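Hi X.,

You mentioned you wanted examples for the new student's onboarding notes, showing what a folding record looks like when two proteins sit in one file. Here is a clean example. The first protein comes first, with its sequence line followed by its structure tokens.
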Amino acid sequence: MKITCNSEKFAAKFNLAAAYVASRDVKTVLQDVKMVVKTDHVIFSATDNETSIRIVLRDVEIGSEGAVMIPSRLMKSILQTAKAENIDFELDGDILDIRVGTAFYEIPTPDANDFPEISLFTGEAYHEVLGADLLKNISRTTFATDMENNKYALSGVLFELADGSIDTVSTDGRRLTHQRGKAVSHGGHQTESGAIVPLKALNAVEKAIGEVGSETAIKIAVEGGKITFVTANDEIMITSRLVDGRFPAWRKIIPEKTDRVKADVPLNDFQLAVQQMKIMTTESQPGLLLNFKPGQLIISASGNGKSSKPVVIAYDQNEIQTKLDPNFLVDFLRCFSGVTNLSIYLKENSSVLFESQQDDDYAYILMPLA
């Protein structure tokens, strides 16, 4: 095996794969990245037995084909100090020779045959979604998961794939967020009860889309307790085990709008007021009091003294107030780009429903503080 390739291009693909090696395992080979050299491209593979990734690198000068295990930590350190334009690899028995400019490294490597096979997805049943749309579904839901219990059903994002749509939902028991997107079903693919996808896999998908571009199409397939994401031209494939457990009946949690009062709030003014009032909260007094009056929303906080800020809103109902966690509001308000107004649906002593007036396929439900 012998190749020469651009250092920056190699580092981008290798480091993406190396992020998903096993941190520790009885099989040390899983702490390395497998590199397979074909006639006109290179394939990087890594897995921790939960999440697997397969990445193609093209524009490589191939001297000879073969396969080798590359120690991930050591290789990342070499790449961090690499100053040359190109990097050369040559396998001599079980020794990998690496040359970067005038620097030369000889690294012993384990047998590549000990690494589990990560085959390319060839199924005919899958959903297809634009990368930019999938990024929106992911970024608007991952922040509301229960990150303290990584094996629990609420630690992941629920994917529901139906004909023409993709729903992603997350909740930590105190808030719930739902994003609906467009998707095309091929081969009758759909999820009967949904698939709970771990955050690690979704983080890999976000990075993959960043690598190939948001205008590329992504295949999504759920089968046998696993979910697979494949970018266009099979450049990157990510496979992950699904999170065990039963996700809450989320549709029942989203409140009806008909028995609630509605306030239309300018997003930027609301976001600034939340950030300014959050400064005054403390651990013992963490909440923001939102007092809705005709034409005005007054946000106030107590803790490090007292503070309040008015926001002009479109509201003509009776006065109503609720106390909310400012951190949960900040998480939610980060999600928007190009949005000018929010609609807030309220009911006394009940959850609060937030929607964007420019994007009614997104909903955020927040439980009030006592």
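Then the second protein repeats the pattern, sequence line and then tokens:
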Amino acid sequence: MALFPPNTSLGGTITPQIKKVLRLTAQIVIIGAIFYLLGRRIQQDWPQITSSQWHFDIPWLVTSLLLMSALYVGHSCGWLIILWRFRHPVPFLPGIYVWFKSLIARYVPGNVLMIMGRVMMIQPYGVPKRVSLTSVAYEQAILAASATTTIAVALPFSEDLQNYSRFLWLVLAVPPLAIACLHPSVVGRLGNFMLRQVKREPIEEFLPFRDILMMFLYYGFFWIVAGFGLFAMVHTVVPINISDLPIVMACTPLAWIMSVLFFISPSGLGVREVVYATLLGFAFKNDFPGDYGGVASAFAIVIRFWQTLVEVGLVLVVMGIVKIRHLKIRAAAETVEGEGPS
């Protein structure tokens, strides 16, 4: 029996196999610890959760479904618009199909598989790898800038957070900084620096600043749509005051940013739940008497389930539409071929 695995170096060098095991172990430990703490909080506040006045409002649920679906469709169309501005227009249905299919790879730790999957799947439609990689980089950068701006604009309007810190209004300095960071000169230097670090060729073509501002406003609009969708989802089972809308509005963009930064977790698993539990804790402060942390923690897990259900449902719907569309095209081609040349 060997004392060391076949690919283990005796000199202390960590092999790729060991790195993979260590990474997987870290993911399990961190995600498990997060859900353990959330579950413990739910267990402690279970009497408070069961004694609350819950209801189930189908119109609010349908509204949430429509708004959350609009968020994903809007983001997918945003990527196609960026490709179009790079003079590589892609047909709508295939482009949406590629974006949604690559979304499945988010459940694998890191965003590399999602990006590379999108790059490979869009290549048959005449989009070079270099252009598709640049478009995804722009997409992620503009999404991050618009998300931070949405958070910075929404949070100061929360009365609870105003009482929590009198310096909250300082976050309004974030939007101009976020927009300035999107300028081609800044994006170019930062992007090419990162590419040089991974030994890739630098970017030579950049979007005009006017197009970047247009996409910035575009994605900002859909972050607002996501906020209303989350508000409707919460309102489906428990009444929530309209004064809590600013906090709810900041939940989705902040959860997305944290999931991107914490790339070791698949689709931000555990990280998003902490963000939702923390912010919704402020929102539920006036709606639930006594301790409301358990209610917010329970809602965080429900939101994860709901968003995953919407994501998977949309992926299946889009893939089904594409398959039906291809079958119709094939059937029409066979019909024409059977009738002879037209």
